[in-house]
Every structure is written in C-alpha cells, then in structure tokens.
Amino acid sequence: MPGDDFSVVVLASDLAVDARPFLSQQQQEEDTWHDCSQYLSPDEDFSDLDQLQFLRLQGSDKNGHRILRIVGKYYPATVVSPERLKRYVLHKICSDLQDGPFCVVYMNSTVQQEDNSPGITILRWIYEELPADFKDRLQTVYFVHPGLRSRVLIATFGRFFLSGGLYWKIKYVSRLQYLWDDIKKEEIEIPEFVKSHDDILENRPLTDYGIEPDPFHLTGIPSSSFSFGKYEDRWAGRDYVS
C-alpha cells in the first residue's frame, strides 16, 4: 500500500550470521527453551533421597546421551509421597540435565510391587509434568530385568497410560549382556544385587516367563502352584538385601 513503510532483510545462507535480532518477538519466545527455574526447589532438602541413590546421573551411552540411572529397589514407595517424588525428579533433571539428549536406565531387578513401585499412573503423571523439550531430549528408556508382570502390564495398558512418545522409547533389556550393546560397562555402575539377579536369571531363563516356580519372587508375580521343593527348602527364610 502506498505510504506504508517496510523493509526486506536478505541473509546469505553461507554466512555465519545470528538471525535472532531480525526475528519478531513472538518467534523468539516460541524458540526459547522451557525455563526450569520453577522446578528447582532451593529451600527443599532432598538429601535423604540423594542418599538412597535410586536416581543418579552417570556416564553416557554409545550415542553420547547422558545416562540417568534409576534403581527401583532403592526407591521407598511406602514412605515417599507421589508429590515429593515428582518434585525430586523434576529438581534432579532440571539441575543435572540442563541441555543435550539423555537416556534412562531403569533397573527393575528384585523390585517388590508393594514396596518399590510408585505405580504406572504416577510415573505417567510425572512424565507429563516434564517440560516439552525434556520429553523430546529423552531418547531411550532401557528397562533392565522387566519380568513377566511388567511386560504384560506395559503391553496391555501401556498405550493407554503412557504417552506415545514414551511408549515407543522403552527398550526391554532381559540380561545385562544386552545392555552392553548400547552402553559401555565403565559408563554405568551396576549394583551387586543386580548382577546376582542377572546370574540367577541366566541359569533359570524360563523364570522370565513365569514358567518355573519362583520362590525368590524375581518376576513380581505369584509363583506356580507346583514346586520342585529343592529351591524352596534351601532358601526359605533367607532375607535378600542389596
């Protein structure tokens, strides 16, 4: 229109020019990553949860993604409220993983449903609370020693309770030897009880599918109605700790 002032800015594609000053304010705001300051809780003391070490930042996988290690057995579901768990997870991720892609290694070894599991609905709730850019940066969830119950639960209800982006990022790892295909051994610390559990499963592979009797409650499902006897007699009454 006559009388209207306008300008045209042409940037050569082969020049290293920061184009942000030429963008509108709205475009700059859309390109800004989520501010994590609202999730950091400087006044809240998480030292008790840090000492449990169920959530720790480790090395990197073979793709260069930082590793967030989660040990299920170390999580005291009966004494930590879902709300505090959510605040702690967001605090750890926002303070320790401020940029770059990352992966999660979740160790389900010897987890007891009533003691160590917050529940799939709570995990979904926490995941949905993550800023969008953190969801995009999460590349893979390595699910170590999933067991039959976890496999069936996720296969049956996972698509309904988990976001599509998270559901397709889950990679089952039935044995530690398969984890080394994606992560070097020196990049992640494996608790001794996880190694022992892996050895037991290696010697009794059908336990993964709930076919053998399971007096150790390794799969997190009820044992078969029959028993060979020798395992239960030998190990009955022993308390397994890490």
UniProtKB/TrEMBL annotation:
Record protein name field: CRAL-TRIO domain-containing protein
Pfam families xref list: CRAL_TRIO_2 (PF13716)
Any coiled-coil regions, as ranges: none
Domain of life: Eukaryota
Stored InterPro entries: CRAL-TRIO_dom (IPR001251), CRAL-TRIO_dom_sf (IPR036865)
Residue ranges of domain CRAL-TRIO in the record: 48-197
